[in-house]
Every structure is written in structure tokens, then in C-alpha cells.
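Example S7 (C-alpha cells).
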């Protein structure tokens, strides 16, 4: 249910603004969370900031640096979607900076589950005499930080299933018979395809199976959108995919999950992870992605790979396009059930978003 400003308290209004500006960091901050921060003095916003691309300043630092008169900080409130960090990483602790600048009140959306924070930022602020309020728009902050929270609480990435199916329920035509010429086909319209490229820019990884690569030779990049291309994760049990396929072009980070241990068959510049294809492949893939610090992934196919994650109940969200055309026969789309369905019309396509809550 959308939030209405006239129903919000003062603290909620400023936290909502934090959430709005935090989205500017989508797709660039990982493995750091995309935090938003707002500084308020006498009911006026005097500073705002969001998390810079990974390695840069955190939201609190950017908000403080945006204040033109720093003397006002000593009588201001800072709002932040996630508990300020209390440890040294690539940047100094934000809690220390808040204390140093003398900001007397801190309003926080939710606690940070990261083991190096986990309430320590709040404790440090309170020990320094700051008034700390926690839990403002907590549900909304949890939704915003769903990738970060899933990664640290479930020890796996936030998993998004995506596929396109025809009006009669197929994701691809029947496999070609020997000698048949491959003909290009599209299930969705150009607007939907552009949206998929936007989604790719927002997530850390993109995963496909061997058959999808061999059949479609996908690039898995951002041709129709700008941003950072996701890490490619490809299942290739027996290393069937030859080096002339796009996924091995070296243009973006690629991880091949295989059972072939012979390093002589491995390509330079590609990361190889050995997994057991006879046992719980989805969970093993989650373990690989967690190890590689991939906090979110779009699983784009094929049908067998998608269904394996559904059957293992390892998914958080499914984004399903239904086009207007029919194949009559072909490869059937995965079967899924979930709650909180949302339907969006995109020209001739219908997009259904299903949450596994």
C-alpha cells in the first residue's frame, strides 16, 4: 500500500525522503547497502546524501558534506534508512563522524544485520549522548534494503526469477531438428526488453543454464540501458560452451559453475567454481554467489534452471512477461505460485510480479 504524506508523522516524512534519495545508489553500491540520509534543522532539510558507488563515501558522510553551515549540525537531526556503521572498512565509521560533528539526534529506519555493526553503531551513538530513535518506516526500509538484508540474514543473494512466455505458455519454440535453420523470435516487445536491461543494471549478477547459452548465445549485458553490467553466472556441467560464445568474451566478470576440475580446460579471466550437479544445485549456486559477495541475481533461464529454484523454494521474486503471440508447441514455461501478485501492462505485454513472502 503506497504511503500518503498527509498520513505520515514528521519523522516518517523525512524517512520517506531518505528512501527516495537512497534509490540513486541502486546497482552501484553493492556489497554496501544503498542508504539514504537527510539532515533536518528547525523542520528544514539542510543536507541530503546517498551511498556513493562502492569504495566511495557513505550516505551520512555525503549528507554532512552537503550542509553549507556546519554550525547548524549541533542542533539538527539526521535521518538514515539503516543503522550507521561503527567499524572501519573502505571508509571510517559513520557513527564516529556523527558524534564528531555533534549531531544530537539520530533517527534510524532499521538496525544493520551485518555482524560488524548489528547494534554497535546505535550503542556507540547512545554512549556519546545522542538521542537515538529506531524503527521509523521499518517495513518500508526493509523492503528497500531487501537485497542487503537477504544476503546477511539468509546467507544467499536476493533471487529474482525472470522469464517471458507466450500467450499459450511457452518460453521457446521446440528445439531445432538437424538441418533446420534457426529463425529469430521475440516473445515480448521492445519496451519490455529495454526494461529487462534496466533490471540487469540494478542487480549484481545474472544466471543462466547451459542450454540457454547454447540455444540463444546471449550477451547478458546492458545493450539497451546504461550502468554497470552484472556478473555472469553460467552453469556448464561438462564445459560444452566454447570460447566463441558471448558469455566467454571477457567483457564482464563471468563465473562458470562446472564439475570439470582440469584447469587445462579453463579459460584465463573466467572464474570456475566446482559444484556437484547430482545434489541440490540451487543451494550450491547460492553458496557460490554468497562466497563471491553477489547480493542479488536475476535468473533468466532456461526453463529447467528456473524450475529447479522454484522447486527448491529458493526465490524471492518472479517477474513474468506474457506476450501476445502463440507458439502452439515448444518448451513449456515454469510453474510457480506465490502471493502479492502485481500486474502491469507494457504495451501488448503483461508483466506479472510475484513475491515469495
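Recovered sequence:
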Amino acid at each position: 500500500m503506497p504511503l500518503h504524506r498527509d498520513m505520515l508523522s514528521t519523522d516518517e516524512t523525512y524517512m520517506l525522503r531518505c528512501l527516495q534519495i537512497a534509490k540513486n545508489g541502486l546497482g552501484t553500491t553493492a556489497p554496501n547497502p544503498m542508504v539514504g540520509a537527510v539532515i533536518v534543522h528547525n523542520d528544514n532539510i539542510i543536507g541530503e546524501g546517498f551511498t556513493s558507488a562502492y569504495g566511495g563515501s557513505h550516505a551520512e558522510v555525503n549528507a554532512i558534506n552537503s550542509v553549507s553551515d556546519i554550525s547548524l549540525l549541533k542542533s539538527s537531526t539526521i535521518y538514515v534508512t539503516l543503522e550507521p556503521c561503527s567499524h572501519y572498512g573502505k571508509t571510517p565509521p559513520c557513527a564516529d563522524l556523527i558524534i564528531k560533528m555533534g549531531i544530537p539526534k539520530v533517527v534510524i529506519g532499521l538496525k544493520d544485520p551485518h555482524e560488524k555493526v548489528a547494534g554497535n553503531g546505535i550503542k556507540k551513538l547512545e554512549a556519546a549522548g545522542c538521542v537515538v530513535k529506531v524503527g521509523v518506516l521499518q517495513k518500508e526500509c526493509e523492503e528497500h534494503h531487501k537485497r542487503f538484508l537477504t544476503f546477511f540474514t539468509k546467507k544467499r543473494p536476493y533471487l529474482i526469477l525472470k522469464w517471458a512466455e507466450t500467450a499459450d505458455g511457452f518460453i521457446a519454440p521446440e528445439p531445432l531438428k538437424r538441418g533446420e535453420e534457426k529463425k529469430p523470435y521475440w516473445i515480448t516487445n521492445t519496451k519490455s526488453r529495454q526494461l529487462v536491461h534496466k533490471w540487469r543494471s540494478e542487480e549484481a549478477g545474472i544466471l543462466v543454464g547451459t542450454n540457454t547459452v547454447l540455444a540463444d548465445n546471449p550477451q547478458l549485458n546492458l545493450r539497451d540501458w546504461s550502468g554497470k553490467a552484472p556478473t555472469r553466472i553460467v552453469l556448464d556441467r561438462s564445459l560444452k560452451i566454447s570460447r566463441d560464445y558471448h558469455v566467454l568474451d571477457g567483457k564482464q566478470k563471468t563465473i562458470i559453475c562446472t564439475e570439470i576440475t582440469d584447469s587445462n580446460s579453463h579459460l584465463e579471466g573466467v572464474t570456475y567454481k566446482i559444484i556437484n550437479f547430482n545434489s541440490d544445485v540451487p543451494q550450491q549456486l547460492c553458496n557460490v554467489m554468497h562466497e563471491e559477495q553477489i547480493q542479488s541475481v536475476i535468473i533468466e533461464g532456461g526453463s529447467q534452471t528456473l524450475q529447479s529454484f522454484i522447486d527448491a523454494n529458493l526465490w524471492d521474486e518472479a517477474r513474468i512477461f506474457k506476450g501476445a503471440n502463440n507458439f502452439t508447441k515448444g518448451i513449456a514455461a515454469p510453474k510457480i505460485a506465490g502471493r502479492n501478485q502485481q500486474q502491469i501492462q507494457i504495451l501488448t505485454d503483461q508483466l506479472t510480479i510475484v513475491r515469495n513472502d
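Notes on this example. The first helix runs from residue 10 to 22.
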